[in-house]
Amino acid sequence: MDYLASQLASGVEALNLHSVVTAEMQAQCLAYLTLLQKWNKVYNLTAVRDPQEMLVLHLLDSLSVLPYIEAGNLLDVGSGGGLPGLVIAITRPDIQVTTIDTVQKKAIFMRQVKAELGLSNAQVVHGRVEAFMPASPFKQVISRAFSDIALFKQLTAHLMAPHGRWLAMKGLVPTEELQLAGVQPKEVIRLQVPNLQAERHLIVFENT
Questions:
Q1: Is 206 annotated as a binding residue?
Q2: Is 187 annotated as a binding residue?
Q3: From the Swiss-Prot or TrEMBL record, what is one GO molecular function term (predicted)?
Q4: What percent of the chain has pLDDT over 70?
């Protein structure tokens, strides 16, 4: 774990987040990673098994969007094991984060993480996003591996606050998906994930 801690600290530095992601937050991120490894052996939460790969593909990938997370409540759709939602909840205690997933074992895991890490700003929902009817809309709705952009926007439109933002985490720029969505994104941001050779992008849409 000392090696992983060193790698995480280096990754945070490379992302220029050292003034945002404190040592305590990094320790919580590593505690999350330990829980993910432990539960993954039984519940198969992610196909990634190697701790070093988990650090890069899950933690650092999730942390790479932090500079683009604004004030206001956030919903993570199809959160799986809590990525990026619970990582955002750890590192942005000033905002309320809701994660939702249809798979019960993933929701149970996320609730365990919330309890063990004391994430009072996190809420976990088990269910379908199109049937989710919260008391208040969300300023930000993010997804990492949920669906194509058109479906992502369609299924979450009822959850979006006026002038809120959709944030779609993608690999290569999804040109065909953007054409099918029929709406120009506000921004297409190239993400630089430390120690990851593959391209990563954040596609931002605004609810106008």
A1: no
A2: no
A3: rRNA (guanine-N7-)-methyltransferase activity
A4: 100
The 8 Å CB, 24+ separation contacts for 11-14 are 11/55, 11/56, 11/59, 11/60, 11/63, 11/194, 11/195, 12/63, 14/192, 14/194
pLDDT at residue 117 greater than cutoff 80? yes
Interacting residues of 64 by C-beta distance below 8 A, sequence separation 6+: 15, 191, 192, 193, 200
CATH number, domain with residue 9: 3.40.50.150
Q: Average pLDDT of 88-97? A: 99
CA neighbor of 182 nearest in space, from 149, 206, 152: 149
Give the H/E segment covering residue 154. Answer: helix 149-156
How many domains does the chain contain in total? 1
pTM of the predicted model as reported, rounded to 2 decimal places? 0.97
Q: Are 200 and 193 in contact (CB under 8 A)?
A: yes
Total Cβ atoms within 10 A of residue 92? 19
Give CA–CA dist 197/83, Å, rounded.
20
pLDDT value, residue 193: 98
**Any binding-site annotation on 144?**
yes
| Residue 60 assigned as binding residue | no
* DSSP designation for 101: E
For residue 146, the one-letter residue type is: F
Would the annotation count 78 as a binding residue?
Answer: yes
Token readout for 115 is 């309890």
